[in-house]
Write a structure and sequence with these properties.
Blueprint lengths: L6 E7 L32 E5 L7 H5 L2 E3 L19 E5 L3 E5 L5 E5 L5 E5 L8 H4 L18 E8 L3 E6 L6 H8 L17 E7 L2 E7 L14 H9 L1 E9 L9 H15 L7 E6 L4 H16 L4 E3 L8 H18 L21 E6 L2 E5 L1 H9 L5 H14 L1 H7 L7 E4 L6 E4 L22
Parallel strand pairs: 1-3, 2-4, 9-11, 9-12, 12-13, 13-14, 16-17
Antiparallel strand pairs: 1-8, 2-7, 5-6, 5-8, 10-11, 15-16, 17-18
Length: 450
């Protein structure tokens, strides 16, 4: 199990709304005292909240399925069902939320305390007490609770750390972060010991910053070799880069300058990193041959505009100077960064004159109706109850759906789909079902649906 995760797919389910209750008040000498069914409770929401002390998405890697509570069903005596509890998921500052299927960015969460309802709970169904009217005095039905939103989202941390240590595998990056901070990464004498970044907190005077030991890069990393795209994605989220160069490598065909140029070539090929400040660290100076090689290499790197430090992660030689140099670069990068405003949630009201639904002809006598209200009403209807179906017909007629179907050329018996073509509700349209007809007959029936 990794101890660092900066990207995860989260499977989210908001709570379902509770069903309404169809009940008639009964007591001694009052056998039919009128409808008294309560409403169902609303399902709980799933909310993402930026929390300052959250630095990783590890918890969602361990438990990727999250569900809010369902609303409770209403009951007789006008008792409404309880609302389902919301769940609040803490995320790091700067978390980007994307649709896992399309990759569309849903929101960029910035600023402590910023909240975003990623999945809304379903509305509770109305009980028959709330559905009573002058035309329907004792409804024999109630509305069903709506299902809560269900979706898969990708959470991605925009910023991993202030400083990224980059270099070939086994260059000593893990040893360096262990020497600079309290981090204790796995250290071994074989390549790719590190497969996910290790984070360490470093203090340089008044500047406190985080350092990421990024897994080793190899030539071709920008094309995906050695999980290169994954590793470079970590580098992209750090504002300062430190080349860690192995001056004691015995591998044929490698030397400090060629290593530096190979890594720079991969950073350039990946793009997005050209403006990041850099410095170079010549590591393993405790080895005599490496110290001599570092003295030769230093002026070559300085000619390329690099600030160079010779250090030994093993003996801690040169670490103080390196720490303060990194602190200066981090402080400068923070000062130059634009002020990040907290995420502002924009609510877009429905446009004036918008009917709230659309009617589309699919073929000669097939029509599709889409819109928030008609699709919601379909989900709320108990199709085993004729009176509930008649009530749905009345609602659609009052909304203007029948009128628009007539304008679109629909005739009696036309096939009408409400919702998506794949999962919508299909019925044969009969224009005689309208709100002008007064319901008569036993509870739970509708004489228009004989």
């Amino acid at each position: 199990m990794p101890d660092f995760v900066d990207q995860v797919v989260l499977h989210i389910k908001a709570g379902d709304g509770g069903h309404g209750c169809a009940s008639v008040h009964r007591e001694k000498f009052k056998p039919l005292g009128g409808p008294d069914g309560g409403n169902g409770g609303r399902g709980g929401d799933v909310i993402l909240e930026v929390t300052p002390n959250t630095a990783t998405l590890l918890e969602y890697h361990r438990r990727p399925h999250r569900k809010a509570d369902n609303g409770k069903q209403g009951s007789g005596a006008n008792r409404d069902g309880a609302n389902g509890g919301d769940i609040i998921l803490p995320v790091p500052d700067g978390t980007v939320v994307k649709d896992a299927d399309t990759g569309e960015v849903l929101i960029d969460l910035v600023g402590a305390g910023t909240r975003y309802v990623i999945a809304e709970g379903g509305h509770g169904g109305l009980g028959n007490a709330a559905l009573a009217s002058t035309k329907r005095k004792a409804p024999g039905f109630a509305l069903l609770g709506e299902p809560g939103d269900e979706l898969d989202v990708m959470l991605e941390m925009k910023s991993v750390a202030d400083v990224a240590l980059v270099g070939f595998p086994s260059a000593g990056k893990s040893s360096l972060i262990a020497a600079l901070s309290a981090a204790r990464p796995k250290i071994a004498d074989y390549p790719f010991t590190t497969l996910v970044p290790n984070l360490g907190v470093v203090t340089a005077g008044d500047t406190i910053f985080t350092v990421a030991d990024v897994p080793g890069l190899i030539p071709g990393a920008s094309e995906g070799k050695g999980l290169g795209h994954e590793f470079l994605r970590h580098v992209e989220r750090c504002n300062t880069l430190v080349h860690v160069i192995d001056c004691a490598t015995m591998e044929p065909g490698r030397d400090p300058i060629s290593d530096y140029e190979a890594i720079e070539a991969e950073l350039k090929a990946y793009g997005k990193l050209e403006d990041r400040p850099r410095l170079a660290v010549l590591n393993k100076s405790d080895v005599p041959d490496a110290r001599d090689l570092a003295d030769i290499v230093r002026p070559m790197l300085e000619e390329r505009g690099m600030r160079v430090f010779s250090i030994s992660a093993a003996t801690h030689e040169g670490l103080k100077e390196l720490t303060y140099a990194m602190g200066e670069m981090v402080a400068a990068a923070r000062a130059a960064a634009p002020v990040v405003e907290p995420t502002r949630l924009v609510i877009k009201p429905r446009q004036l004159g918008d009917a709230g639904f659309t009617v589309r002809r699919v073929d000669d006598n097939t029509f599709q109706v889409t819109g928030v209200k008609p699709e919601r009403w379909i989900r709320q209807t108990d199709f085993t109850n004729d009176e509930a179906v008649g009530y749905l017909a009345d609602r659609l007629e009052r909304l203007g759906v029948e009128e628009e179907l007539t304008k679109a050329g629909a005739t009696a018996g036309a096939e009408v789909i409400i919702g998506s073509m794949e999962n919508g509700y299909i019925f044969d349209w009969q224009p005689t079902l309208n709100a002008e007809a007064v319901h008569q007959g036993p509870r739970g029936t509708d004489n228009r649906l004989g």
